């Protein structure tokens, strides 16, 4: 469920910013000549001796835009499953569920700029195309997530549910500007922040060569010598991300990729169901 009113093309399960016909009451307004007399509330007239029209919420479908980070760092995984594979599972499941309830599904793969991109559409053939592109996605290049998010904010004219699945290797201040841009365009933004357990725990016991999977230089270091500085930098980064999330009011989920992705999705979908009815 979307947390914000959507502007779809057909009737669906999500709130619309426009008034229409549904079972959910919205508000009363004064009668004006030309209004449908069948919508007059005669009880209100009996109480106030004035004519009032009952208005109801309109229900519509939504546009789900999956944004998958396919930069080099998404190829890392210390538990046998890479961050990109984990992102595939979350994205494919959400796409299938949205398609089943009549919503349009689109996909954008992001590495060195905007790579594979298909706009949201409603059809089984289009969903198969989304699945094929997810399967073919390979981790490579540097993260250009910020530039791509700004571009998508400008090109997606209709309100959409934007689901970003990434390890967010980007300065939190820059990330905050992206979120604010998407929110300014009336999009509902959800983020799955993927982190590997080793990135959190840093359980390296012997001299290790650390490779930059996005093309930077390698570093050979003794883990005990850098562990304290690494943890301090990590805490500062996560605190910055938390502050950005609070300021942007986005739907943020930090996920360690050793957790069962089904449990992650259950939490996400449950929170979305509870948010139904928010305007």
Short description:
The protein folds into two domains: 14-60, no CATH class; 63-274, Rossmann fold (3-Layer(aba) Sandwich). The chain contains eight helices and ten strands.
Layout: helices, strands, pairs:
Blueprint: E1 14-30, H1 42-48, E2 52-60, E3 63-69, H2 83-100, E4 104-111, E5 113-121, H3 124-136, H4 145-155, E6 161-166, H5 172-184, E7 188-195, H6 197-201, E8 208-210, E9 219-221, H7 223-248, E10 251-256, H8 261-274
Parallel strand pairs: 3-4, 3-6, 6-7, 7-10
Antiparallel strand pairs: 1-2, 4-5, 8-9
Describe this structure in words.
By secondary structure, this protein is of the alpha/beta class. It has two domains: 14-60, no CATH class; 63-274, 3-Layer(aba) Sandwich (Rossmann fold), CATH 3.40.50. It is built from eight helices and ten strands. A six-stranded mixed beta sheet has the order 5-4-3-6-7-10, with helices on both faces. The longest helix has 26 residues, at 223-248. The N and C termini lie close together (12 Å). Residues 8-12 and 14-23 have low confidence and may be disordered.
């Amino acid at each position: 469920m979307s947390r914000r009113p959507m502007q779809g093309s057909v009737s669906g399960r999500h709130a619309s910013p426009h008034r229409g016909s549904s079972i959910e009451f919205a508000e009363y307004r004064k009668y004006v000549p030309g209004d449908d007399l069948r919508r007059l509330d005669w009880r209100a007239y009996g109480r106030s001796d004035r004519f009032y029209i009952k208005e109801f919420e309109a229900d519509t479908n939504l546009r789900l835009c999956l944004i998958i980070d396919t930069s080099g760092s998404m190829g890392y995984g210390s538990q046998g499953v890479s961050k990109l594979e984990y992102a595939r599972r979350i994205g494919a499941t959400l796409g299938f569920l949205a398609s089943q309830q009549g919503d349009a599904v689109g996909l954008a793969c992001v590495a060195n700029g905007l790579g594979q991109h298909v706009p949201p559409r409603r059809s089984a053939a289009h969903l198969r195309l989304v699945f094929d592109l997810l399967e073919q996605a390979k981790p490579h290049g540097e993260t250009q997530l910020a530039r791509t998010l700004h571009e998508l904010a400008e090109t997606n004219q209709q309100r959409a549910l934007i689901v970003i699945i990434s390890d967010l290797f980007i300065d939190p201040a820059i990330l905050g500007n992206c979120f604010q841009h998407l929110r300014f365009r009336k999009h509902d933004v959800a983020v799955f922040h993927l982190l590997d357990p080793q990135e959190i725990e840093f359980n390296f016991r012997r001299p290790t060569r650390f490779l930059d999977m996005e093309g930077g230089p390698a570093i050979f270091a003794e883990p005990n010598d850098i562990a304290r500085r690494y943890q301090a930098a990590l805490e500062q980064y996560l605190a910055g991300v938390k502050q950005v999330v609070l300021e942007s009011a986005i739907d943020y989920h930090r996920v360690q990729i050793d957790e069962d992705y089904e449990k992650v999705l259950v939490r996400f979908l449950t929170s979305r169901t509870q948010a139904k009815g928010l305007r």
